[in-house]
């Protein structure tokens, strides 16, 4: 009996230690009267006993473990201690949900790799900077050891560890003496920077900006030095040496030209070469007087030869690319024929895997960025069709992943801007070239290239032609001239040959009615990511999500004006319907603490962000909140329509 009382007293002592002594009667009534039983309690059991918050449950278990260890070290395991040990062994065998508290699993947890987060930082030198740096400024910052750098953190790092890594040689060591720094990010659709209000920890920053956005670092008290860093000097200094033919000394190749000016052996050579220079000058023939002003010196000849050689090299490389593409197309046709692959989706997936090269088309993880070769183009959103028709023909290898940069916009294309580019372009092409057809236009070859690129790089399918035109495009032996041009553009990536050999691919061009986005479809696509179960943050997030669901129902029924469910999906993913090959990274709905209640979207990772009130503030009235939603979802293409 004394032993039982001792165990009950231990349970009461644990509850008193964590300031929950008023719950002791609940434990007694439920016959939780010893530490072994306490260690076996699940989260649901503790909630029924009155310990509802995550923090209290953590402190309770920690205190139970401390008391148990103290009892184990203070007296030998006999009698009831042995019973306790047997009970724990049975728990570890038959209660796998609680087995994480056993020694074996704890060891496994210790060996588990920590969660990491890699972010791109841009360190500015001017403490008054309010805009993102230009191209020239980026080069100067890079030479000074500032500018862009990717730094990896553990998500569990504290603020002190975050600062330590940021100040290291891997980061920006010049920040150590600047008197503090601010963290900023670029506002949408402009280069203006705004301060990030959050804790200076990787976990907090990642929850606010996601995995792709850049963080700009700005000094507070003093400007950072723009002198070339020693690391940059070492990196840019060549260690290759060559022998001076006049003095027979090994000289660094970067210093060789300056050495020749002072080399003793070279002085005599320079003097002996002067008469030859005069002879060459006097022996050159003279042109008629009207051309005397034209500079015909031989200095220009190497440039002409170089230009000719560059053109020959480019032509040779283009020919090699075309030959490689033909081999790849024939290989895809043979594979699909041999394995009897007839589904156009499966064929397209195989073709995309074999033809597209360079950087991955889309992100597969929201914590990393993709690296690799791309076709980089810059286009004007206001005159997108014109600028696209100037940029696309200049590309020499259409197989590379397209990287799109809109004028005066800071968004980095990791998949989202490219999909938006193709969506707008396909709409404009339909209006200008197919509604109605302009047979006299010379642009249809470029249109064909854009069709092929959009199909291969997860853009919208070109289902904007009539069935008669599709038949003429792929079946007629002598089509009209504009159809021949369109066919040539498609075959720049082998699509004419592919459709002729694999007829089911014509489905990619056949016009079909667009399937409307339903309430069930969009709620299935935009899956919410809530905080830990039972937390106060989760309760608030569910309130916001409940309001959002009500808003979606109103949008689905046409009660939100111009907003429909397709626009909501487009805001988060850049597309109004699910791509034919699906989303590489499944769309998601996240919550963040911000002052503004305007939703934000990250189309590169297909994420919609809703605002949770800061510091326990109340949500706005429903009408006000829904007006915020309307304003955001009508803000298509990063600008009000």
TrEMBL record:
<dbReference type="InterPro" id="IPR000569">
    <property type="entry name" value="HECT_dom"/>
</dbReference>
<feature type="compositionally biased region" description="Polar residues">
    <location>
        <begin position="272"/>
        <end position="287"/>
    </location>
</feature>
<keyword id="KW-0833">Ubl conjugation pathway</keyword>
<dbReference type="Pfam" id="PF00632">
    <property type="entry name" value="HECT"/>
</dbReference>
<dbReference type="InterPro" id="IPR044611">
    <property type="entry name" value="E3A/B/C-like"/>
</dbReference>
<protein>
    <recommendedName>
        <fullName>HECT-type E3 ubiquitin transferase</fullName>
        <ecNumber>2.3.2.26</ecNumber>
    </recommendedName>
</protein>
<feature type="domain" description="HECT">
    <location>
        <begin position="567"/>
        <end position="622"/>
    </location>
</feature>
<feature type="domain" description="HECT">
    <location>
        <begin position="394"/>
        <end position="429"/>
    </location>
</feature>
<dbReference type="GO" id="GO:0061630">
    <property type="term" value="F:ubiquitin protein ligase activity"/>
</dbReference>
<dbReference type="InterPro" id="IPR035983">
    <property type="entry name" value="Hect_E3_ubiquitin_ligase"/>
</dbReference>
<feature type="domain" description="SAM">
    <location>
        <begin position="6"/>
        <end position="70"/>
    </location>
</feature>
<feature type="active site" description="Glycyl thioester intermediate">
    <location>
        <position position="604"/>
    </location>
</feature>
<dbReference type="InterPro" id="IPR013761">
    <property type="entry name" value="SAM/pointed_sf"/>
</dbReference>
<feature type="compositionally biased region" description="Acidic residues">
    <location>
        <begin position="292"/>
        <end position="301"/>
    </location>
</feature>
<dbReference type="Pfam" id="PF00536">
    <property type="entry name" value="SAM_1"/>
</dbReference>
<dbReference type="InterPro" id="IPR001660">
    <property type="entry name" value="SAM"/>
</dbReference>
<feature type="region of interest" description="Disordered">
    <location>
        <begin position="272"/>
        <end position="301"/>
    </location>
</feature>
<keyword id="KW-0808">Transferase</keyword>
<dbReference type="GO" id="GO:0000209">
    <property type="term" value="P:protein polyubiquitination"/>
</dbReference>
